[in-house]
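Batch manifest, entry 17 of 40.
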Amino acid sequence: MTLNATIPAWNNAGVLPPVRPSSPGNSEDRSPYFVELTTLVDRFAMSPERIVIFDGLLRFRADIHRAGIVSGFQWLDGSFLEQVELLEGRPPRDMDVVSFVDLSGVDQRALVREHSTLFDHQQAKDCYSVDAYFFQVGGRLDADSIKRVAYWYSMWSHRRDGLWKGFVQIELDPAQDADARAVLNPHGGIHHE
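Output type: structure tokens
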């Protein structure tokens, strides 16, 4: 996977384009755009509401890491990655996140029991401003797994009105979170000890 240095600008419809503008339709420079977490923060931390949502994402990631999950990646989407302020006259309410995680050797029942806020959809939304979903990677690839990944791709590559759009992918590796927090703080981010 090639890391993109930038996220394309919103197109005239106020969404990320599904393929980087001026690239051919079969280009690999397409959604999901694989970027550093700091690039995402620098690009979208443009209002107090967005900063609060980013803070929630960083706390969500920190709690995932504390739970022992450090391998995988996340797809980020929703109105947060759209120009929703212009499109709908409101700030984003949350960020949609699918965490593709490697749980090899993890006692999944204990993980959910000990870190229930991460895995309870409503609690995660209330606590982190994250509309959170999980998908286990690293196991056997079968028809059901492909169908579930295709579901997320098809859901997130279009708006509800059918408009094609793009989304982003970031690594779950905790090494980039401190840098993202440092980028967020000058934007008015919330500092946590």
